[in-house]
Amino acid sequence: MLTPISKATDFLCIIGGAYISKSVVFHDGANFSHIDGLFGLLGVVLPFVTFRLTRVYQPFRHDTMRQSAARAVLAWLIAQLALIGISRAYPGTGLRGEWLVWWTSIAAFALVAGRCAIHVMPSLMRSWRFAPTRVAIVAPFAANGDLLGRIATQTRNAFVPEVIYDPSLPLDTTIEQIPAVHEMNVFKQVMRSRELREIWIVNPPFQPISVENLFVEFRNEFVNIRVLPMSEDATPIGGTIVGHHRGVPVLNVMATPERSWDTIPKEIFDRLFALFILLAISPVLVGIAIAVKLSSPGPALFRQYRKGMNGEVFSIYKFRSMYQSADKPGAVVQAQKGDARITRVGRFLRSTSLDELPQFLNVLKGEMSVVGPRPHAVEHDEYYKDLVQHYMFRYRIKPGITGWAQVNGFRGETAELEKMEGRVRLDLYYIQNWSFWMDMKIILLTIFKGFSGKNVY
What is the top-level taxon of the source organism (predicted)? Predict the structure, then answer.
């Protein structure tokens, strides 16, 4: 993405330098001839020839700010020296020569300023949706051939490589000034230290890469793993592409569902529905809060840490249903039938799911959705993530107050591992088959089937 911006910036610097210097030298414009105009046109075209010959726009060049500016200015000076040399063969060289000197100086300063601005642009744009994707590249024999150049052609500079993992390397090194590592542990450390969330596997023909190892290593982390199928001429291999990421054809091995325009109705509905519910049932909320306060000492609301989308931890709101300090610090035990920790009012609230109503505040804050996989206590996540396959994938989207698993009978306690596996299986089905109308169906089923369940204690 930065290459087109660099070209446009350089063009504006050169055009702007030509206009300003012309205004300085040719005050009234009367002495500016058509020959001068032709030289001005040549002075705009010629630099981009020298820029190409000096490889100013080579993809993935990780130069320092000084190196980038020096390369652009050098290419500009070469072009202007050639232009001045050609100009001497034509009449009227006095004012034209002065104009070209002013133009050379002004545009050189502008190019340096432009390069500095472009160099800091990625850090400024990093949080924006249209920022280049920062990725880690996994490739066998990455040091052979123009790997990054071929990928740039394929992806139209839609991403910025930060590290390369190549298990065939004998030692850690750099490839085109990008760190290249050969050990998985080091690769994971770099991923975490640089907060990378994208792994792109470059899969040339006859050099297959095992994705199982990557899948196992990153199964509990919110990292997207995609395969970029490549042939030797840097074109995608037909028949293997099943998705796109920012317009680039890829094979998604393990990836968060794309937040496209289709999700906007869900986002709008969540906020409006949550606001409507909170206003409509505000008297009920006040009544429940008073009942909870009178039932036992302690606050009416209970806050507990849960994981949200992509593992971001947030505080979930519930009406307190247990005696204060009933849980031991650092341990969360699922409620069971006849649990002595639960108050009389709390037992009624839990059996009818009325204790969940304050979670519409979480929806209003954007931490949850009305429909989505139910978030579990962080301690439960740590317990189940290695026992249930694809368990953490359910956090690839926003958690919900109700979900496909809940309307299909998986509410409340999940004492047996099979119950949790069933809940996760239905959550994954929802993620893979989501639509706005599926959300409406789940909300209606939640209303008509009621909020109680035989496993809710």
Answer: Bacteria
Token pair 């910036």: residue: 9
Which of helix, strand or coil describes residue 55?
coil
Question: Which neighbouring-strand residues pair with 250?
Answer: 243
Question: pLDDT tens digits for 371-426?
Answer: 999 998 888 888 888 888 888 889 989 999 999 998 888 776 666 788 888 899 99
Which ranges in 221-330 belong to alpha helices (H)? 264-280, 282-295
| DSSP structural state of residue 248 | E
Residue-range domain boundaries for the chain? 2-125, 133-255, 262-449
* CA distance linking residue 83 with residue 32, whole number of Å: 17
* CATH fold group of domain 133-255: Rossmann fold (3.40.50)
Asked whether 307 and 313 are in contact (CB, 8 A), the reply is yes
Which amino acid is present at 437?
W
* Nearest partner of 316 among 269, 382, 265, 374, judged by Cα: 374
Task: Annotate 382-420 with b (16+ C-beta within 10 A) or e (fewer).
Answer: eebeeebebbbbbbbbbbbbbbbbbbbebbbbbeeeebb
With H, G, I as helix, E, B as strand and everything else as coil, classify residue 318: strand
**Angle at CA of residue 417, ends 452 and 318, nearest 5°:** 40
- Decide if 155 contacts 268 (C-beta within 8 A): no
User: What are the DSSP calls for 380-398, one per residue?
Assistant: HHHHHTTTSTTGGGGGGS-
Residues 158 and 246: beta-carbon distance below 8 Å? yes
Q: What is the enclosing helix (H) or strand (E) of 307? A: strand 301-307
- Tokens 């649990």 — which residue? 339
d(CA 416, CA 99): 83
311-350 tens-digit pLDDT: 889 999 999 888 876 665 555 556 556 567 788 888 888 8
Q: What are phi and psi of 163, to 5 degrees?
A: -155, 150
* Tokens coding 200: 């792109």
pTM value? 0.61
